[in-house]
Amino acid sequence: KPTTKEVLQAFKDSAWGIGVPVIIIGGIYGGVFTPTESAAVAVVYALFVSIFIYRQMSLKDLYATLTDSAVTTSQVMIVLSAASVFAWILTSEGITVAIAESVLSIASSQWAVLLCFNVILLIAGMFMDGAAIITILAPLLLPIALQVGIDPVHLGIVMVVNTALGMFTPPFGLNLFVATSITDMSIVRLSKAVLPFILLSLITVLLITYIPDISLWLPRQVYGAW
210-218: long-range contacts (C-beta < 8 A, 24 or more apart)? Predict the structure, then answer.
């Protein structure tokens, strides 16, 4: 068991490293950076700390790190390019319009429509990138949502949470491929490992879907009822 002195020394040694999550979380929630920009700033900061503060990274190590990052990024971009092609096929063949018409034909109440939305978004998230899903489906789902009285902000939150879940849902969740390249674990093993997290996320999706105040309470406090 570490002594108090050792614990304090560990905090002291990690002070510079703690700056990375501070930059990412603080920058995003403080409105200073977008998530992408905060990641870029955090990388520059981490390189500076590793090379000049802790002095644990040599130029050789830097080259190896950049190479590994390039390999990981290329794997993700291949998946993204395939998702973009898949999205184009769905749109050009009119499948997305057919989905929207099918939702209205089988559901009329808010609860039923939201359930259909969740099913559609979850299935889409298994095969497509979140940005592509929102770009394609948002213009189709919004008119349906307005027609049955679903708040647009609530719909937006439901879509974002579903697409986030899709990022680690087998078989083609992007984060699964990133984790595979980093950990050298098989996609099958990782898929089994994330099942508990998928279950918890599904419960969260249902709570956000059917308790709108979770999503709408804060906007209403700021902007009032609309």
Answer: 210/111, 210/114, 212/151, 212/154, 215/153, 215/154, 215/157, 215/158, 216/151, 216/153, 216/154
> What span, in angstroms and rounded, lies between the C-alpha atoms of 166 and 81?
17
Cα 77 to Cα 72, 80, 179: the distances in Å are 9, 5, 14
Question: From the centroid of its chain, how far is CA 121?
Answer: 13
Q: How far is CA 63 from CA 47, 55, 194, in A?
A: 12, 15, 32
* Cα–Cα–Cα angle for 197, 214, 111, rounded to 5 degrees: 85
Over residues 86-142, the pLDDT tens digits come to: 777 877 888 777 777 777 777 778 888 999 899 989 888 888 778 778 877 887 888
Cα separation, 160 vs 118, whole angstroms: 11
Degrees, nearest 5: CA angle 67-70-71: 90
Burial of 110 (0-12, 13-18, 19+ CB in 10 A): middle
Each residue's pLDDT tens digit, 43-54: 999 999 999 988
Residue type, 195: L
Exposed, middle or buried: residue 133 (CB in 10 Å: 0-12, 13-18, 19+)?
A: buried
| Cα angle, residue 209 at apex, residues 203 and 212 outer, rounded to 5° | 125
